Write a sequence for this structure.
């Protein structure tokens, strides 16, 4: 029997589980401490935002899956194996709040509290016993949770502090207040769970974009199958109104597709034969026959979800700092509570009941839940908000760095430009032919060529609805152009160098062609015998959204620079047209060297945007590498962030989202620390009591979580 069959992880394996009820930073610490005690565990990472736990096995011995699950269940949490091993899986279905354990505790505590007040009013002779009973019944599950945490080496938990505070209140005859505190704590815990569930649903909603069923074509006939069973090479029918069930290529048909679920683009795009389609996008008006190119676990939506999950597991530097701060904050405040209980009676003659009461209230203030959750909640919401808009960010550290960028180095081809040459000028040199005639003859010569200039001329001729004549005796001119016999005319479409002698005799036309080349354009001259009939110029033109995207970066105070492998003249011309600094004739290593130079010279942090293999070194060298959506797999894997929408404006949106998230983090930290500071002072002075203390703690936790959720409605202005 194999190790996996016995439920034992092999060395180096990373195992994953979904955990129900793990809603806060305190829960995370308890789960990590419990799992680390299992023999054979090398490391463990719990994530409250998505409710997951990842465990890495040691090299020399392997942990038992059953032992890990038992350790988690021993803390009172539900656990379900994530067999996909890190790929998107179905999230644990959230219960209605009144059906959850926290909801039932609120109901029981509330009912007993109301009953206690009623009995105290109707039958005062009972004294505090109704409140004592209400406290004990509500406190039992809290005390059990505290004991379970203590057993795994976590003494400073909110449950432990609550148990001591409520129990101590009973001892000093503050039973009514103790019962109120237990009830308020239960309400706060419930609200935390509801807020965490809402954040979790915002991520799991990405999974809902994928249709569960697909129309698989077998012998030309559609048959409904599970979308998860589709394999590369199979064909599916996507009807009007259907969601595309897979990543694939259109084999037949054309239609407008709404790609907003994947790329964030609000305007539907026309897709036709040979075009790529993504799982989760919506087919509008035409039936499509699509060839499956990726399995369900590897399609675009699945990769987005996996990236978001991994990103949220990677803590930002500010989050790691807050965690370290919280580690010593709780023991320090608990120590202050101990001093508050002992020093005033001994030194100032304060009544022991009063000093102990204040100490118990201070204990409740000691819990750093609001502070610890303030940063990861905001970053998780920021990452999720970006993913829903086609802005993928690989971790909190990347999200934090994006907002600090001072310089953005951008590739030219495919990033700032369309990525393929387009006809910019058609000029006739003689009275015998007009511009349409020159274009018609040139396109006829280029009909059979696959050269980029030929493709540009053919595409332009199609847009002009030109009927192309036949060409005879077509031949290529080695390194110079093409030639052929068209409509009884012997024609050539050649480069300026090929006809340099004739241009020397016509200086005005030579100067005109040179002016086109200075603008970064490639020129083809139509020649008949010794006559120059006309000229066609092509250039890889700036994208329609390039200027808008660069203006958006300028508004954010970020300098954009173009790094290109194209010739310096073309790069300079495009840079001038876009109004940015431009460098050309750069090899991949040269681009990376430029990035490192700027980082060393104070122009950093530096971001690099690209879409090709030649951008990979610079993407890796930059503080943040950003891959455009149409880029290669190498660029997407090397980059720290990706723009699925393939829009230049998306770069500014990434930076603005980062800054909005960091502002949210600062607000959350200020709220959490502000609440703590105020109530530490007022509690120590005896102004506020137990129930105010617990409201301050749980209320602040809920407040910072809800504030973080505002990022889910982020909009770039």
């Amino acid at each position: 029997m194999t190790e996996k069959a016995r439920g034992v992880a092999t060395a180096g394996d990373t195992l994953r589980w979904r955990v129900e009820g793990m809603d806060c930073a305190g829960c995370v610490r308890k789960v990590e401490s419990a799992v680390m005690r299992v023999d054979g565990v090398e490391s463990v990472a719990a994530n409250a935002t998505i409710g997951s736990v990842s465990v890495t096995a040691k090299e020399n011995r392997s942990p038992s899956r059953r032992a890990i699950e038992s350790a988690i269940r021993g803390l009172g949490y539900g656990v379900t194996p994530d067999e996909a091993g890190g790929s998107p899986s179905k999230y644990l279905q959230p219960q209605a709040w009144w059906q959850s354990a926290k909801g039932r505790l609120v109901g029981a505590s509330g009912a007993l509290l109301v009953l206690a007040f009623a009995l105290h009013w109707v039958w005062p002779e009972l004294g505090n016993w109704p409140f004592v009973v209400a406290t004990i019944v509500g406190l039992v599950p809290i005390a059990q949770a505290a004991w379970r945490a203590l057993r795994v080496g976590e003494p400073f938990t909110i449950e432990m502090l609550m148990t001591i505070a409520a129990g101590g209140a009973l001892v000093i005859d503050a039973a009514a207040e103790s019962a109120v505190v237990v009830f308020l704590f239960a309400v706060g815990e419930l609200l935390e769970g509801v807020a965490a569930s809402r954040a979790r649903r915002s991520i799991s909603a990405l999974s809902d974009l994928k249709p569960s069923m697909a129309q698989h074509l077998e012998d030309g006939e559609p048959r409904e199958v599970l979308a998860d069973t589709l394999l590369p090479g199979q064909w599916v029918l996507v009807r009007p109104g259907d969601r595309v069930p897979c990543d694939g290529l259109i084999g037949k048909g054309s239609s407008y597709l709404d790609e907003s679920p994947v790329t964030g683009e609000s305007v539907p795009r026309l897709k036709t034969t040979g075009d790529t389609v993504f799982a989760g996008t919506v087919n509008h008006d035409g039936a499509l026959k699509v060839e499956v190119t990726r399995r369900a676990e590897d399609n675009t939506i699945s990769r987005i979800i996996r990236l978001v999950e991994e990103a949220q597991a990677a803590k930002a530097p500010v989050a790691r700092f807050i965690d370290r701060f919280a580690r010593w904050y709780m023991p320090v405040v608990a120590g202050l509570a101990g001093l508050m209980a002992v020093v005033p009676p001994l030194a100032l003659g304060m009544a022991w009941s009063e000093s102990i009461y204040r100490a118990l209230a201070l204990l409740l203030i000691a819990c750093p839940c609001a502070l610890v959750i303030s940063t990861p909640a905001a970053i998780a919401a920021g990452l999720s908000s970006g993913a829903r808009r086609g802005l993928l960010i690989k971790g909190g550290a990347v999200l934090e760095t994006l907002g600090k960028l001072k310089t953005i180095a951008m590739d030219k081809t495919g990033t700032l430009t369309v990525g393929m040459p387009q006809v910019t000028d058609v000029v006739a040199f003689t009275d015998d032919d007009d511009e349409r005639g020159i274009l018609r003859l040139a396109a006829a010569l280029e009909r059979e060529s696959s050269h980029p200039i030929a493709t540009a001329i053919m595409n332009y001729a199609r847009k002009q609805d030109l009927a192309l004549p036949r060409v005879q005796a077509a031949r290529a001119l080695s390194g110079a152009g093409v030639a052929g016999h068209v409509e009884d005319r012997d024609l050539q479409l050649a480069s300026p160098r090929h006809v340099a002698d004739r241009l020397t005799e016509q200086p005005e036309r030579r100067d005109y062609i040179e002016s086109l080349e200075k603008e970064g354009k490639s020129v083809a001259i139509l020649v008949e015998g010794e006559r120059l009939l006309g000229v066609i110029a092509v250039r890889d033109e700036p994208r329609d959204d390039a200027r808008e995207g660069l203006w958006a970066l300028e508004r954010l105070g970020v300098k954009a620079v173009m790094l290109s492998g194209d010739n310096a003249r073309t790069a300079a011309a495009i840079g001038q047209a876009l109004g940015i600094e431009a460098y050309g004739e750069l090899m991949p290593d040269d681009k990376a060297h430029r990035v490192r130079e700027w980082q060393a010279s104070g122009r950093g942090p530096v971001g690099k945007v690209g879409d090709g293999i030649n951008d990979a070194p610079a993407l890796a060298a930059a503080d943040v590498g950003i891959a455009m959506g149409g880029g290669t797999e190498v660029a997407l894997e090397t980059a720290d962030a990706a723009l699925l929408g393939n829009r230049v404006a998306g770069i500014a949106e990434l930076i603005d989202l980062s800054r909005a998230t960091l502002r949210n983090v600062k607000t959350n930290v200020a709220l959490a620390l502000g609440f703590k500071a105020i109530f530490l002072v007022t509690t120590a002075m005896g102004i506020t009591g137990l129930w105010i203390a617990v409201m301050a703690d749980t209320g602040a936790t809920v407040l910072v979580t809800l504030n973080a959720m505002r990022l889910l409605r982020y909009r770039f202005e």
Notes: The CA atoms of residues 311 and 394 lie 5 Å apart. Residues 422-539 form a domain with the Calcium-transporting ATPase, cytoplasmic domain N fold (CATH 3.40.1110.10). The chain has 24 helices and 26 strands. The chain has a mean pLDDT of 81.
